[in-house]
Structure formats: structure tokens, C-alpha cells
Amino acid sequence: MVIRPIRPSDERAVGRIAYQTGFFGQSAAAYFANERLFAHLWVGPYFRGGGFACLVAESEGEILGYVLGSPDPGQYGRSLRRVLLRMLPRLTPLRQTWASLPYLLRAGRYPSPHADWQQFPAHLHINLLPEARGLGLGRRLLTAHLDLLRGAGVVGVQLSTTSENRAALELYRRLGFVLMATATTPLWTPWLGHPAEHLGLGLVLRVGEGGGQEVVSSV
User: Fold this and answer.
1) Per the count of CB atoms within 10 A, which of 60, 63, 192, 202 is most buried?
2) DSSP 14-75
3) C-alpha dihedral (19, 25, 26, 28), degrees to nearest 10
């Protein structure tokens, strides 16, 4: 099993994994019908100038998982806008695009909580295929990513998850992430059947220059 830097040619495979794991470890098809649009939105910005220290786990030429991140919210936002401008004229098939709108509208209405962006300017997300879980790959990917951020002088990193992701939460805890913000919203209610507790976690990467180690907001 190899952990290596991401390549431009990995975009399709990484987008496929993002879609296959985008609903609490299961397929995002439950709430997002357009797989191509999903991959563009969730993965595209990291391949078009918004990413840094992005890595994949590969075995015998097959990508089994990834960690994507950006060290600067402004940089990521500009990349996301480029992706949107590039893909909007190509939103096909239209039926699947319309079927995906309920989630996008709800996500805009019920945003996830986050830590202070000045204290924790970097963000990341990590996903593994089901068959790759429990092998220590998540820890290897995340540790390698954090080491690259530290080497680049990034002061802090944050991520957003939910209380549903219990295994991931344990990994984050072991690597030093702490709870910075919480919000219980109905974003996922149509698909989960109940509200989910959104969690914003943060990790100080440079002692004395990051944020505090306590919850900063609760909604």
C-alpha cells in the first residue's frame, strides 16, 4: 500500500470515491443524483489550484482513498468559482441535475459550523472505500497530510463532520483534533430520518499561533 501525492490523472478516481462514500460512508446517490456534478463540486477545486498536500492511498494501481485539503479559504473559494464557471454550461443530464438541487438548497440554508478561519486557515476531508477501512490507511493519509501542512508553516487546520461518523471521530481524536463548534440542523433529515449533529473540529499545527482548544460556538 502506497501513500503518494495526488496527480491530475487521479481526478476521475478520486471523484468516484467521493461519490461512493459521500453519505456517511455510503453512496451519495441517496441524496445527490448527478454523480458528475457531485465530483466537480467536491473534488474539482482541489485539482484546479485550490488544493495543497493532497494525497491518495494506492494498491496495485487502484486508488482506495484520499485526503484533500486547502491551506487558504480564499484560494479554495477562487478555485471553486473557476469550477462552477467551467461546468455550468455542461450540467447534464438535466433530470439528474434537478434531482440534486434539494440537497444543494438545503446545504445553503443549513451550513456546517466551523472554527475561526484566521486561527485554522486550512481545511481537509478524507474518504476511504469500504474495503480499505480498518487497515490503518486513514491514519497514514491524515498523518502524512498534517506533516506537509506543518512543514509549510500552516498554523492550524479544521474539518467538518457529523456525530454519525464515529470511526472517523475516533481517528481525529487520536491525532489531536478537538471540538471547536457544533450545530444540530435538519440538513440531513429527508435522507437520515432525523437531524444530524454537525461538528467543526480543529487542530493547532504551530504552538502559540493557533486557536484555543475549546468549543467556540454552539447552535
Assistant:
1) 202
2) HHHHHHHTTBTTB-GGGT---HHHHHHHHTHHIIIII--S-EEEEETTEEEEEEEEES-HHH
3) -40
The fold for domain 2-218 equals: Aminopeptidase (3.40.630)
Query: What's the sign of the alpha-carbon dihedral 63, 41, 31, 184?
Result: positive
Give residue 209's pLDDT: 42
pLDDT computed for residue 11 by the predictor: 97
Residue indicated by cell numbers 486557536: 211
CA dist., res. 92 & res. 1, Å (int): 36
Q: CB under 8 Å to 97, separation ≥6 — which residues?
A: 33, 34, 37, 91
| 199 DSSP β-pair partners | 161, 182
Task: Give the length of the chain.
Answer: 219
pLDDT along the chain (219 residues), means of 10: 96 97 94 92 94 96 97 94 78 72 92 93 96 92 97 97 90 96 94 94 78 34
* 29, 100 contact by CB (below 8 A): no
Q: Are 74 and 49 in contact (CB under 8 A)?
A: no
